[in-house]
Structures are given as C-alpha cells and as structure tokens.
Specification:
The chain has 344 residues and is of the alpha/beta class. Helix content is 38%, strand content 13%. The chain contains 13 helices and nine strands. It has an eight-stranded parallel β-barrel with strand order 2-3-4-5-6-7-8-9, surrounded by six helices. The longest helix has 21 residues. The two termini are 15 Å apart. 47% of the residues are buried. The structure holds phosphoenolpyruvate and magnesium ion (MG). Phosphoenolpyruvate binds next to β3 and α8.
Length: 344
C-alpha cells in the first residue's frame, strides 16, 4: 500500500465531479494534533478524549479538559474538531475508575453506557469543559472571565468549530439521555454566567443496533460517524484484539458493508451528515467505495491523509455509487474484493 509518498494537500478536496469530502484526522494524544495539521487534515474527525484519562491516578479536571480541546481548536481555526466523550471499557481500561468486573467487557458497560450510569459525574465534568470550549473563537455572549482568544478565528465556515460525539450508542434512549445532560449542563453554565455554546452533537455508529437505528439517531442529532473497528467486531462477532478471529474482523465482509450502507441510507432525508472514523476510512484503496456509500467525511490516522485526498480528487461520485451498489450485491468477501479489484 502506497500511503507515504502522496503530496500534502493543505486545502479541502472534492471529487472530480465536485462533491466535497472532508478528510480529517484521528488523534489519540495532544502531540498528534500538529502532525495532523502538517499532513493537510481538514480538522479532527475523532479526538479520542480517553487519552486525557490514561496513565494517571485520577481523572483530569474540567480546566485540563477545556485547555486540551481549546488547543486543538486553535490548531485548526477554520475546521471542525470532533471530540468523542470518554470511551472506556472493553479494550480501554482505566484502573482508577473501578470499572465493573464483567465476564465479557466488550459486551458490557462501555462508552456512553458508563457515562450515563456509573460515571455521570465524569460525564458532567467533561460536558462542562466541552460546552465552554465550544464557545471558544465564536462571537461569545461576552463575560465569563475567559482569557483572550488570540487567533483570528471569528470567521469560521460551516465546517468549523467544536462537535461532540457519543461512543458505543445502541439505543435511542441513550442519545435522548445524553442530550438531556447537555441541556442541563448548558443551563447550569448559563446560571453561573459562564461563557459556553452547544456544539454540534453526534453519535458513533459502531454497534449493529446503531446502524439499524440510524434514521432515528440521525433525526435527533447533527451527525453520525461510523466506527468500522468496533462495527466490524460486533457485526461479525469477532473480537478486534484476537488474532484467532482476525480474518472475521474485516470491514470488507458483506455484512459489515451492508451495515455501513444502512447507516448512510438511514440518515438520508435528515439534515445529519455522516462520517467514518474507523480504519476503513484511511485506506485509499477503499476511498471510492466510501464515497459511494454517501459519506461526507472520512477521518483517519494522519499518515494516510495525503493519499486519501489524492484519491478523492480522482473519484466520480456517480461511478462510486455504482461501485457501492455492486459491492452491496456481493455475498462473500472474495466477491467484494474482486469487484474492488483487490487481490484475494
Ligand atoms: C472504531 O471503533 O472504529 C473507532 C474509530 O473507535 P476506536 O477504534 O477508538 O474504538
Ligand atoms: Mg470504537
């Protein structure tokens, strides 16, 4: 795979027929933000906020979280930063949180489940930090005692600013509960006279349930983002960590591709945009297919951004849709790979 030698394209790209596709970066630490910008990222499509909670003895406070998000916003003054709320449990353990012992943590209290249940306190602190950060660089409501903004970021385009997404969603009720928490945090901040704004709000689609419910989720949210790493694991019932079933854990299995298509189809007719932030998004050999599924944004590790941008510019979106339709008719991975012109 040729990933490293494509030239950096600093500006946003469109397909050959003019469909804008945002190509953003996944970041798993503050140190990954500047290289993402150097590689031409159109913002951050997945800011894995759990890095702020790892390798320490207690959770970060509101101020520390606020500052980390503001630093990312300042690195991308014209672009969107999508922060994922705390996603622990399963493969992501944080000792001081005393997560419940479960026989199968991948099917247990992960992601949004923990935020709404055991760790409502952490969720509230995180939402306070995020709503305050969302006001950063916008024409604020003044006051609030914030420090100077510095950058000339008062003129964001539509893509700009903070967005927040919830991980491991499997029920509409979770989204409704999370939106209630956002509303109550906003009311608290307003009562305290603290500068804040409500960011764009979205959900990750990384369970089959979320894919089946994409229409209902999209009707309540500003965006969805497909996490193919977990989605492939849950659709195929194959642990993403296990070598023994690595062959099952592949987004090119027809069932996973149909789950992705069901997600974009579900959001059609709503105002929600749909992105993808799992590994599949960063594979330039799959860019045409991703465009064909109707995704608006692809977010990936920074190293693959130039190659994916290069590929987006070559794609014709009508041909890409035909390719996606051909792939959706396939019944085996071998057929999928054949349609995509990939070796077995
Ligand atoms: C995913 O599941 O595809 C995803 C992007 O999230 P993570 O890899 O952090 O679980
Ligand atoms: Mg995931």
């Amino acid at each position: 795979l040729r990933k490293d030698d494509a030239p950096v394209v600093p500006e946003p790209v469109s397909t050959a027929d003019g469909r804008a596709i945002e190509v953003a970066a996944n970041v798993g630490s503050g140190a990954e933000v500047p290289p993402a910008s150097d590689r031409g990222a159109d913002g951050i499509g997945l800011f894995r906020s759990e890095f702020l909670f790892l390798d320490r003895e207690s959770p970060p406070d509101e101020e520390e979280q606020y500052e980390a998000v503001v630093a990312a916003l300042e690195a991308f003054p014209d672009d969107r930063i999508v922060v994922r709320t705390l996603d622990v449990g399963g493969d992501k353990q944080v000792p001081y949180l005393d997560l419940p012992e479960e026989p199968n943590p991948f099917l247990g209290r992960r992601g949004i489940r923990l935020s709404l249940e055991e760790h409502a306190d952490l969720f509230e602190t995180q939402l306070r930090a995020l709503l305050r950060a969302a006001a950063h660089g916008r024409d604020g409501n003044g006051g609030g005692g914030s420090e100077g903004d510095g950058a000339s970021d008062d003129d964001r385009d539509d893509r700009g600013g903070l967005a927040v997404m919830f991980p491991m969603v499997s029920r509409v009720e979770e989204v409704e509960a999370a939106l209630d928490r956002v509303e109550s945090v906003a009311a608290d901040l307003a009562a305290e006279g603290v500068d804040h704004a409500v960011p764009e709000l979205g959900a990750m689609v990384e369970t089959p349930a979320a894919s089946y419910l994409a229409d209902a989720l999209a009707a309540r949210l500003d965006f969805l983002s497909v996490g193919t790493n977990d989605l492939a694991g849950y659709v195929m019932a194959a642990d993403r960590e296990s070598d023994a079933v690595a062959d099952y854990h592949d987004p090119l299995h027809p069932a996973v591709l149909r789950a992705i298509d069901r997600t974009t189809a579900g959001a059609e007719g709503t105002d929600a945009w749909v992105g993808m932030c799992g590994e599949m998004a960063g594979d330039p050999e799959l860019t045409e297919l991703s465009v064909g599924f109707g995704l608006d944004e692809l977010s990936m590790s920074a190293v693959t951004i130039p190659a994916v941008k290069e590929r987006v510019r070559e794609v014709d979106s009508a041909e890409a849709r035909e390719l996606a339709e051909a792939v959706l008719r396939c019944e085996t991975r071998a057929e999928v790979r054949d349609v995509l012109g990939l070796d077995e």
